[in-house]
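Duplicate of #3305? Posting structure anyway:
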């Protein structure tokens, strides 16, 4: 178990970044609507890019885990608030390797929220399509940050893949269900167990993560190299169409 205060400080710092971004949006309902629309669009983009992996018997669970836990449009405010209250317990209760994974997730979470916030501020409304998405990314000028986001996503996947090979750690995690729930860490426990199950089922994630890296890096290159005024059809084909307007 970890008695080091540094992982706790890092996790809390990442959660504080996310909390501040959310607080800044509370007074701007239009911005909040654009952020949620952007998150939903990015989940649709992930589903388009990885339709084959989501349908795969071997890779489907891991692809769904990435979609639901890292690319999904759901709001994690309640989960984050729970984490922030019990981070000291987390560091004391869970093995060091698990705490390190949570710190990685926190860093990815904070960066993703910051990028979503910056992109949403470039949008003119919540009903976005491929050209809107492309132009928003280019307007942020954050290509390097987007590539860092990919790297962090892969690191979380690599860590989960490595940890699933340690049977004793998986057993320990199962034994943590009761203490985790008592400490207010049930959401974290669910996240970790679903991640372990998804990556363990693949029996090796190297190929899956290589595909994710290849497709995400290619998309970033295409988005930032495209002509924002008249993007090529090939680039737009990589992105979902504009969602139909609600009746």
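Output from current build:
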């Amino acid at each position: 178990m970890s008695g080091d205060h540094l992982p706790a400080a890092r996790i809390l710092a990442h959660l504080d970044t996310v909390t501040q971004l959310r607080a800044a949006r509370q007074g701007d309902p239009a911005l909040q609507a654009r952020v949620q629309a952007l998150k939903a669009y990015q989940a649709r983009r992930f589903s388009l890019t990885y339709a084959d992996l989501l349908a795969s018997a071997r890779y489907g669970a891991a692809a769904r885990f990435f979609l639901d836990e890292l690319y999904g449009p759901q709001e994690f405010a309640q989960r984050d608030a729970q984490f922030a209250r019990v981070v000291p317990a987390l560091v004391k209760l869970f093995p060091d390797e698990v705490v390190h994974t949570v710190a990685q997730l926190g860093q990815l979470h904070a960066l993703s929220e910051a990028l979503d916030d910056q992109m949403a501020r470039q949008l003119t409304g919540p009903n976005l399509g491929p050209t809107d998405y492309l132009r928003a990314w280019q307007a942020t000028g954050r290509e390097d940050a987007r590539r860092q986001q990919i790297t962090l996503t892969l690191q979380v996947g690599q860590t989960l893949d490595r940890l699933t090979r340690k049977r004793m750690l998986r057993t320990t995690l199962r034994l943590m269900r009761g203490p985790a729930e008592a400490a207010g860490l049930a959401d974290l426990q669910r996240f970790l167990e679903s991640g372990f199950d998804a990556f363990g089922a693949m029996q090796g994630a190297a190929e899956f993560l290589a595909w994710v890296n290849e497709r995400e890096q290619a998309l970033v290159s295409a988005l930032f190299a495209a002509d924002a005024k008249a993007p090529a059809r090939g680039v737009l084909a990589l992105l979902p169409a504009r969602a139909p307007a609600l009746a």
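Confirmed duplicate; merging threads. The longest helix spans residues 96-120. Residues 111 and 148 are 9 Å apart (CA to CA).
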